[in-house]
């Protein structure tokens, strides 16, 4: 149950806007303490209606709870629906093993403008996905940004990445202290 709780918590933290534990608990009609127990995996030794309600609230498919308990990954309902509608155009979470926050960002509103693979030394590659503002066409978005602006944005991102990692670590430590 700890794996399930961790996956549920990770999904909540990856959502934008990120719901608080209080907001999530209110949405599924449980106490914050009960939600914390679900996220720690200590709420019950079996899957309860509250756990299934929390998974639904986070956008998981009905099968995702059982998939996670069996060692697999959850699937977002929206991603599953899109995959069924046009399997050639969607990412298979099982095949790609993408974190839910990445799948959600890719499938969010806004045109897919471009992608890039940026080598990070010999052992890694960064995948960059450029999304446009919702409602704008790809041509409108491309026309509004010059190559120099895009390269400047990429360079700014490269320089900021170490700082983002530090913020992420600080935030995780702060969250862990709050959850304790």
TrEMBL record:
<feature type="region of interest" description="Disordered">
    <location>
        <begin position="1"/>
        <end position="21"/>
    </location>
</feature>
<dbReference type="InterPro" id="IPR010982">
    <property type="entry name" value="Lambda_DNA-bd_dom_sf"/>
</dbReference>
<protein>
    <submittedName>
        <fullName>Helix-turn-helix domain-containing protein</fullName>
    </submittedName>
</protein>
<dbReference type="InterPro" id="IPR001387">
    <property type="entry name" value="Cro/C1-type_HTH"/>
</dbReference>
<feature type="domain" description="HTH cro/C1-type">
    <location>
        <begin position="8"/>
        <end position="65"/>
    </location>
</feature>
């Amino acid at each position: 149950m700890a794996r399930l709780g961790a996956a549920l918590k990770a999904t909540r933290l990856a959502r934008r806007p990120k719901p608080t534990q209080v907001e999530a608990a209110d949405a599924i009609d449980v106490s914050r303490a009960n939600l914390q127990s679900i996220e720690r995996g200590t709420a019950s030794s079996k899957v309860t209606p509250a756990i299934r309600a929390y998974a639904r609230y986070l956008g998981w498919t009905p099968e995702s709870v059982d998939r996670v308990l069996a060692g697999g990954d959850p699937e977002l309902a929206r991603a599953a629906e899109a995959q069924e509608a046009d399997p050639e155009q969607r990412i298979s979470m099982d095949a790609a093993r993408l974190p839910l926050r990445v799948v959600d960002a890719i499938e969010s509103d806004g045109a897919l403008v471009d992608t890039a693979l940026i080598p990070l030394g010999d052992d890694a590659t960064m995948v960059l996905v450029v999304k446009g503002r919702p409602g704008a066409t790809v041509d409108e978005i491309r026309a509004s940004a010059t190559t120099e602006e895009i390269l400047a944005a990429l360079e700014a991102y490269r320089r900021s990445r170490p700082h983002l990692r530090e913020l992420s670590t600080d935030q995780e430590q702060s969250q862990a202290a709050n959850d304790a």
